[in-house]
Amino acid sequence: MAYFQGQNAGHVDVRDGGLQLMISETEQTILSSCFLCGAVELPYHTDIEKKVRQKTGAVLSLVSPGVVLENMALAGVRVVELAGLAPAPFCGMILADFGARVTRVDRTKVAVAMDTQARGKRSVALDLKKPQGVAALRRLCVQSDVLIEPFRKGVMEKLGLGPDELLQENPRLVYARLTGFGQSGSYAKSAGHDINYLAISGLLSMLGRSGDDPHAPLNLVADFAGGGLMCALGITLALLERHASGRGQVIDASMVEGAAYVGSFVWKSRAIGLWNRPRGENILDGGAPYYGTYRTSDGKHVAVGAIEPQFYDQLVQGLGLDPATLPAQMSFSDWPELRRVFARAFASRTQAEWCQVFDGTDACVTPVLPLDKVHTHPHNRDRGSFLQDDQGEVSPRPAPVLSRTPASPDMSRDPFVGEHTRPVLEELGYGPDEIQQLLDSGAAECNKLAARL
Length: 453
Ligand SMILES: C[C@H](CCC[C@H](C)C(=O)SCCNC(=O)CCNC(=O)[C@H](O)C(C)(C)COP(=O)(O)OP(=O)(O)OC[C@H]1O[C@@H](n2cnc3c(N)ncnc32)[C@H](O)[C@@H]1OP(=O)(O)O)[C@H]1CC[C@H]2[C@@H]3[C@H](O)C[C@@H]4C[C@H](O)CC[C@]4(C)[C@H]3C[C@H](O)[C@]12C
Fold this sequence. Notes:
By secondary structure, the chain is an alpha/beta fold.
């Protein structure tokens, strides 16, 4: 049973797999099935959504009676994320956004977490070089559904935390190993970063301007598309399979293979000749004048993607050009000249003026928006595609949008390192003296600020 005081005092009835939220008669009764993990202290009902969401992954809001609110898709899933650089934190954030309870295990003696994708997570600081720290993590994994480990091959085994040990103690555990090169192969123990994995995937050789060296698109393809996101897919698939088998398994998420898999279209479309010209001279890699970017008179840019003839015709018309004076759309040898014609045309007006010409048409012309402008663009604004958190930071909303159980990311501040060490250890059954002993030995660390969960 949990209570909350203050305005509209009421109480929360907790039943197996269900939560009945009785708000005072002036409010409404909300019935929602959610999986509570432990008692929920709710000081004020205005915080109730945030507290219940953080604790259970259920999304509640005051609605008329009889509307049963659903859990988020991953409500009740308990995830342990070992602190890593960028891909694993992204994987953890995805799971947290969709309702999982993600506990990040940070190193001790670390002032600030480098995890910029920490929303919705808790932080426990454990020293895994100390046996008590390893013991605490093992106990956490026994009571969890998923482990995400971001280290190179062999590190977890050295700590006595390899799959053999942890799956022995918890056969239902989904043990996700997110690495650059995978758990086997000659590079398996080598250090690397996104660009290295992208290079080995083959995709980097396809990326860059004609005549230029290969160029990586930020660290998006291997770290995130082929790394964190692919690992989250693997975890979700393994959790789905576990419903039938009742068993967990190990996920070998290699960013080389994840990136290559994301790029399957490149491999699968070589036979139709889409990539048989040199880098930067094909339709989709910057070679075609109707698939690229152009500078406008105010120094901004527009993106042009008018591939199909019927859309290309609208592009030419919008630019005010006479098709009879232009070379054929697919005349490769004339593409440089065609690009010069388009460049001159686009340079004659501002980005906003071109939007007035092309918005609402099928010419496939859109403004190139800087990060600080995307959330105010009418299309993105009307959909709510970008969120502003409690600290005023704008970032993308979770994707995709599920109609009945959409993600509801936690918009409160990121956790401090070790902020939740004490409540998590208490959840694991450690008593006050045991916790103090862990803290005194340096095996665990509590952030000075009191936990807010
Ligand atoms: C974070 C920003 C973005 C980075 C993105 C970048 C482009 C990437 O591609 S990230 C993907 C990297 N690859 C992988 O994740 C694949 C799998 N992992 C690995 O291969 C390796 O982990 C590794 C190569 C990434 C790192 O190797 P390392 O030897 O360091 O570690 P491991 O071999 O894995 O072993 C881990 C050891 O740690 C021990 N451990 C783990 N947890 C604990 C614990 N809780 N307690 C105790 N010990 C623990 C474990 O036991 C292992 O020990 P052993 O080795 O003894 O076995 C970054 C972009 C720019 C960066 C900033 C910039 O560089 C400036 C600053 C530089 C400064 O030095 C740091 C701060 C910066 C601000 C820096 C911060 C960020 O890195 C960036 C912002």
